[in-house]
Amino acid sequence: MGLLARNARRAAIAAAGAFVARATCTALARSSVRTALERTNHRGHTVSLAEGPAATLGASVASAAGARNGSEALAALTVGLGSGAVGLYDDMVDTRPHHDGKGLQGHFRALMQGRVTSGAVKVVGAGTLGLAGAFLIDRRSANGRISKYRSLMHTALGAGLIAGSANLMNLFDLRPGRALKVTMAVASPLSNRDDFSGRIAVGTASAAGALMSDDLAGTTMLGDCGANALGAMIGMSLAARSGPLVRGVLLGGVTALTLTSERVSFTKVIADTPILRELDELGRR
User: Fold this and answer.
1) Which contacts qualify for 8-13: CB closer than 8 Å, 24 or more apart?
2) How large is the average pLDDT for residues 97-119?
């Protein structure tokens, strides 16, 4: 009976994530704001950013539904919806070509020149939300009672992992379906546990899977909104199951990949690696 109940709970979380994501994407595509969400993709085709808010809501609501207490539910909604919101701000405000360079270097260069880019606002927002999320998941012990606050370093590592994962997912959102495939590839093995970490992974993977067909078809895209939210939820799932040492190792890996992206194109690496190229193009129209 215990196994049946766990499987039923996981199925309900997955169904909630998929339903909310699909319903939101459909509603936005038919709404009066649909033209404001239109952008041009790498092929010059018009696509909709409706997928971003849809992924954000689907992953956040499903993860909150799987929370074991109010602190976890608040963490899921704060990190998921907040990360999506700062990403959506970047999507809406920064519609001009980037002249300051890409990535963190470009944002820092602009700051040194006295200009605050929407990307810089997104980075600061992601860091703040990561700190809030890490604090909320660290402030309770496994039995749900408020425990002695864990070390500042432990929470800081969790915050860095959440914010860093959000930023890293943005780096994969350059071709149809790529970021969603990365999300599902990472979230699927994380969903094996029947705890908050596993339930975040179930909700996030289900939202990503529900939006895959439109993304691969090139009719919708995640944008910073969706990529931010999905990446942050993956980061929170990892943080929720990890102690300080593992968080530090994971954050080191995320940081290394982010810094590497400043000099090496992930798209080029994927294109030059046969197995990665095949997986990347799988299902794309």
Assistant:
1) 9/66, 9/194, 9/199, 10/191, 10/194, 10/198, 10/199, 10/202, 12/65, 13/62, 13/63, 13/65, 13/66, 13/199, 13/202, 13/203, 13/206
2) 54
